[in-house]
Amino acid sequence: MTRKGLGSELKRPRPRHPNTALATLLNEEQLSRHFQQHFQRRSQHFGGAPSIDFTVSMSRRSNRGRNSPLSSSVTAALTSDSDDDVCGTRTPDWTMASEQSTAVDSYNARHSIISRSASFRTERTHSNNLVKARRERSYAVFLAILSVGLYLLHMIKEPFHGNYNNSNSWSSSSHRSPAASRLSMSVIQPEDFASSAQLKNNKADDGGLKIIWLMSFPNSGTSYTVRLLRFLTMEYSASNYGEEYGHVVADSVPALPSQPQGPFWMDEPSGVEKGFTYPTKHVLTKTHCGARCAACPPLMYAESTYSFQRRCFEGRRYYNEKGELKKKVDVYGPENVKKAIHLFRNPFDNVVSRYHHQWRYGPLVDQTTKHEGMPTREEFREHCFRMNDWRAGPERVSILFTDEILDLMAKVPCRAEFFRYIEWHNLAFVTSRDLGIPTMVLYYDWFETKFDDAAATLLEFLEVERKGHELELVPGKFYTDYFLPEEQAAVHQLFRLIASRETWKYTQRFFTDEDGKASYSAAQ
């Protein structure tokens, strides 16, 4: 069977000649001398046989590149070994010469095959190198495009920490009003300008029921704050998330009839709440906005100011369709949002409370199973380090995490939760400022340390009188000791690094004592 591409001269594979690469290693003169010596050795047993002059011509193929293999040919001429042969006194042995010529032809054929084989191997190597080079260039171009895209995404999603003014430009000056209550609670007043929502729709001044947001990062004391205000005012409250307590059993009812997208009244009250009334001026509405997912990769909680604000207006409506309860997410307009309460909780307590909620109701447990009791400190830390390892890869390639942040938070339990906490509060301040609505900052721990003052300030901000009684708060939900002093110090540095001016102003109290010293240093 003929070997494809190597000519029809070979019927079977032959051993490789030790001088296969001569055509590419020797020049013409050296190759001619090599064949001359070789055939003379082969012809020694033909006494008086004519010698053969070899001429080797070597040239590159015209259609090859500079490094293409040499093509060569061998020609032979019969000459006499003595002057007698030239004068014709001796008759050459033409039979012997014919054999020599046949040998030359055989070597020419073999050398041609070798040259073509070497050429084929070189061409294949050259082709492979070209493919490899193209792949490397394509990969480099892909990385460049990806880097530019991630940079642009970062620029779009990064919240701007300046302030908006009448000239439609950003400035770095602060415009916070002085404290407005006996508790020195901060009420951030808007500038004297029409917000974007008011410019789009002037129905905000029609005298109807308006919305006061309770903006909170999940598990920062939202449920207790809502229920407390319901009992103090004896009025129902609303939520962006349909029914809040227990299982959904009925259609969601909009709090504003002219705004079916949301918010919605909470579950039908039971027991003592049956005596409550519907508010006529302001309805307290729970919203968590965006950037709040738990146990998720950075891609899922990376929010721009627009996407974060849009989720503040998302209403989750449940409705019955042919006996099947379905859910639909709509977005209502900003024109009826008049005020906001910005709730803060100690970040260490908040992170552990988030874990408790996920452990009891979230994706960390089968929905058909109900855990009894609470997980221990060791279980919390084990879970956190497992989450750190699970999300280490996405965090390393995410534009949200710089090397400085990753090095700083490398050994902090549930490090991504602290990043989400800071990001959420940064964007919440941007949202309330962009809407131009008065915003009251409230600390959850005040309900345990200064309840009366906190309740009075809240009622004053809501513009409603106290009609009911207070709701007992379960004390002792503090979890700072779940973290080592060096871990608390790392979280402190993270806040100083990425928190906005407003966020840092209202969270630095969680890391320092009354004397301004680090609160975690005493625990060392």
Automatic annotation (TrEMBL):
Ranges of compositional bias, category Low complexity: 60-73
Transmembrane region(s): 139-156
GO MF annotations in UniProt: sulfotransferase activity
Region: Disordered, residue numbers: 60-85
SUPFAM superfamilies: P-loop containing nucleoside triphosphate hydrolases
Annotated keywords: Membrane, Transmembrane, Transmembrane helix
Keyword Transmembrane helix: yes
Annotated InterPro entries: P-loop_NTPase (IPR027417)
Protein known as: Sulfotransferase domain-containing protein
Species this protein is from: Phaeodactylum tricornutum (strain CCAP 1055/1)
